[in-house]
Amino acid sequence: MAGKAKTAAIQNLGCSKNQIDGERILALLADNEHDVVEDPALADVIIVNTCAFIKEAQEEAIDNILEMAEIRKTGRCQTLIVSGCFSERYRDKVTKEFPEVDIWAGVDDWAAVISSALFKKDPQESFKRILAEPTSTQYIKIAEGCSHKCSFCVIPSIRGKFKSRSVRDIITEAQWLYEQGTRELILVAQDTTFYGRDIGTNLIHLLESLLKQTNFPWIRMMYLHPQLVTDELLNLVASEPRICPYFDIPLQHISDTILTGMNRRPLSKDIYGLIERIKRKLPSATLRSSFIIGFPGESKDDFNRLKDFIEFARFDKMGVFPFSPEEGTPAYDMRPKTRVDIVQKRCEELMAIQQEISREILEAKIGTQTQIIIDRISDDPDFNYEGRTMGDAPEVDGRVFIQSGNFEIGQITTAKIIGASDYDMFCY
Ligand code: SF4
Question: Is 194 within the bounds of a domain?
């Protein structure tokens, strides 16, 4: 078959939600006579799909735009598009600084902006995506934006209020993903538990519809808000073997002073209660959380409370992030700031505690049988495959290295854990 007339390449930065937007932008170009290529030097159209969540992400966006601008000057490229959160947040201010950029597309208007500039027409409504590899595990975005007002976060000002997609839309895309070979479907939004509140439905109804109308053996949720993890949700996860018993609940802190400064609820008493409720109802569920260290005013006492909480909760997985003051957020002007060296020391201290907890939890799994999804052939010559259990999300969690066997990518198999390191496990 003859190729299409033009080519397009993308640099996808940031989170899984942004990656989905990038896959949709590529699908829009593919629908309009563009072949997708890996190498930007071979592309007529280059897209830099950016993140702007924290300072490092903004710097990464700028570096990528500059790199692609060089290719735009010297290579085949005739159109450089910048999309995503950096574009949405800064396009009015930075256009002059990047004269090589032809199109600045925002998070809501990218389809209209690109279609009108490149194809001189209105865009067609479409959920289609050009999927990044591997296809066996895919994210699906169930909503856009966020209606919370955490004082450190720029997302609501970039992505707007929480807007749920309809259940029907999500099911249609999910069925299409299954046909493409997806076996693990991961529901994402800024707050997955908020799903449906703006359109008269809820997450339970969405999950039940997905269970009924699709055949995914694994359905995983990410980014649950501690205020909205209800007993109804716990009961559904406990009773439904196709929903991964995996609770990814970014808590950000445990000190009431800091949580109040962050404008977050619930406060510590209810957070302790939530952890107890989950452990009582689903004793073998995986708990994941993340915390911000060095929020303005974080005292030694606040930090010690956090250490005690982490010893209490014994999260299976945990991430810590230094506070990043973001212009335009209430926390940007808050004082007193925590010294950078103290923040770094606290981050290291927490991760050292967590490393030990993780190792103990994984060592206790040695000898048990567990389901594993096969992700890829291993690069490590000592192993044949790499996969994950229901307790491991892709990218952020550990892996299972498998020594033998003959599997298809995306296959779900049962194997015995024979060893563990700090964050990974090993099987025959
Ligand atoms: S819930 Fe998450 S996305 Fe929403 S404001 Fe808070 S940190 Fe930002």
Answer: yes
Q: What is the 3-state secondary structure (H, E, C) of the chain?
A: CCCCCEEEEEEECCCHHHHHHHHHHHHHHHCCCEEECCCHHHCCEEEEEECCCCHHHHHHHHHHHHHHHHHHHHCCCCEEEEEEHHHHHHHHHHHHHCCCCCEECCCCCHHHHHHHHHHCCCCCCCCCCCCCCCCCEEEEECEECCCCCCCCCCHHHHHCCCEECCHHHHHHHHHHHHHCCCCEEEEECCCHHHCCCCCCCCHHHHHHHHHHHCCCCEEEECCCCHHHCCHHHHHHHHHCCCECCEEECCCECCCHHHHHHCCCCCCHHHHHHHHHHHHHHCCCCEEEEEEEECCCCCCHHHHHHHHHHHHHHCCCEEEEEECCCCCCCHHHHCCCCCCHHHHHHHHHHHHHHHHHHHHHHHHCCCCCEEEEEEEEECCCCCCCEEEECCCCCCCCCCCEEECCCCCCCCCEEEEEEEEECCCCEEEC
Residues 144 and 293 placed together within one structural domain of the fold? yes
Give domain status of residue 129, yes or no: no
Cβ 191 under 6 angstroms from ligand 1: yes
Best residue among 148, 223, 228 to mutate for probing ligand 1, ranked by most atoms within 8 Å of CB: 148
For the Cβ of 150 lying below 6 angstroms from any atom of ligand 1, the answer is: yes
> In terms of domains, do 247 and 320 share one?
yes
Closest Cα to atom 1 of ligand 1: 148
Range of the domain at 101: 6-119
- CATH number, domain of 169, equals 3.80.30.20
Residue 1 has pLDDT above 60, yes or no: no
Summarised one tens digit per residue, pLDDT across range 339-374 is 999 999 999 999 999 999 999 999 999 999 999 999
CA–centroid distance, 399 to ligand 1, in Å, is 28
> Does the predicted TM-score (pTM) go above 0.90?
yes
Are residues 384 and 320 part of one domain? Answer: no
